[in-house]
Amino acid sequence: MITFKDIQIKFADFHAIKNLNLQVKEGEFFTFLGPSGCGKTTILRSLVGFIKPSSGQILLSNKDITNVPIEKRGISMVFQSYALFPTMNVYENIAFGMRVKQASKSDVDREVRDIAQKVDLSEGQLGKKVSELSGGQQQRVAIARALVLKPSILALDEPLSNLDAKLRVQLRNELKDLQKKFGITTIYVTHDQEEALTLSDRIAVFNHGIVEQVGTPKEIYNQSKTEFVCNFIGDINKIDPDIIQNSRLKDFIDPQKISYIRNEKVSLSPLPQIKDAVQLKGKIVDQEFYGLYTKYLIEVSGGGLLKTIEKESGLDYNKVGDEIDIYINVNDILQY
Ligand code: ATP
Asked: What pLDDT shows up at residue 67?
């Protein structure tokens, strides 16, 4: 288990991390998620040992490692830029850490070939210079180089962000499989909410050096604790006060609070089995086709706009100008 206890990190008078308390369980895939500059890389670097906290403690299985040197922590890091040695071939890059630790030639050879196979690097690729490889292959080398040292923790800092969208999804799935196979505690830093939701056992959402929420992907998405989290994770409707005032919604929720509802929870079909469903009337004023679904913008009768999505079914049910009914389960409304 990793414990961050009362961690503060200051750069001169700038407070990058403000009193972090967090626990990561053994074998967990844990993600630090947040916008650029929120402090997620800083806290990862403090775990690996590149940055010393201004105050607080970092514990590994209850042992204080705050002042333990990097090489004695048993943590391997994979960087966004891969940080491979460009003049060495793939084999030498993967072998480097074991050679520094003076492992025998036969151990190095066995482990390098074994890990290369596990991350899908071929025999032929082992002899190539890293500069001859594609971005995705270089990332596999970086992951192999980290895993060959058999670390107790794998720290990944935006490892997929230099890759194109399709490769990112493919490597993301491979990374998840590898993590499950090795059962290794993994800390993953990203600003990409989709990556965080699909990969993680749990997520900590950072904002300006503080953690706004820790939870499973579903908790973070469906029960966002703060207004920041609900806006950062996915597309969402901020419900216009007119929509609340002009409907039965005001009987169920606090009209003084700010209210949100996720796009896909605004339904164009009745919700017969839901007791607390409220019906509104509206007109479709815009639509965008995304392939998997169509997004509609609806002008609600009496004022206010709502977005919703409808899964692609091959049928054309709705179009701009149509008068439609909208159904909302009041329990899906988030209030702050
Ligand atoms: P990004 O995704 O852009 O890397 P991040 O959330 O990882 O963002 P950090 O790199 O952790 O953010 O930086 C957090 C804040 O601390 C930023 O405002 C950054 O400018 C500042 N910072 C980071 N390292 C230093 C440093 N060595 N000296 C001064 N300020 C720093």
From this structure: 94
Q: How far is Cα 248 from Cα 217, in angstroms, rounded to an integer?
A: 31
Give the Cα separation of 24 and 19 in Å (integer): 16
Picking from 131, 47, 118, the residue whose alpha carbon sits closest to that of residue 90 is 131
16 Cα to the center of ligand 1, angstroms: 7
Which residue type is seen at 67? N
pLDDT, one tens digit per residue, over 139-149 is: 889 989 998 99
- Gap from CA of 279 to ligand 1 centroid (Å): 47
Residue 127 CA to residue 129 CA, distance in Å, equals 7
Domains of the chain in sequence order:
2-232 (3.40.50.300), 236-335 (2.40.50.140)
CA-nearest residue, atom 23 of ligand 1: 42
Question: What average pLDDT does the structure give for the chain?
Answer: 93
Atom of ligand 1 nearest to the CA of 32: 6
pLDDT of residue 234: 86
Q: What's the DSSP call for residue 319?
A: -
State the pLDDT at residue 224.
Answer: 96
How close is the Cα of 209 to the center of ligand 1, in Å?
10
Closest by CA position to 137, among listed 96, 82, 79, 76: 82
Q: pLDDT at position 313, please?
A: 84
Q: Whose CA is nearest to atom 5 of ligand 1?
A: 37
- The 8-class DSSP code of residue 240 comes to P
Atom 14 (ligand 1) nearest CA:
39
What residues flank ligand 1, with Cβ below 6 Å? 11, 14, 16, 34, 36-42, 191
Ligand 1 centroid distance, CA of 329 (Å): 41
Q: Which residues contact 91 (CB under 8 A, 6 or more apart)?
A: 112, 116, 126, 127
Q: Which residues are CB-contacts of 312 (< 8 A; sequence separation ≥ 6)?
A: 291, 292, 293, 294
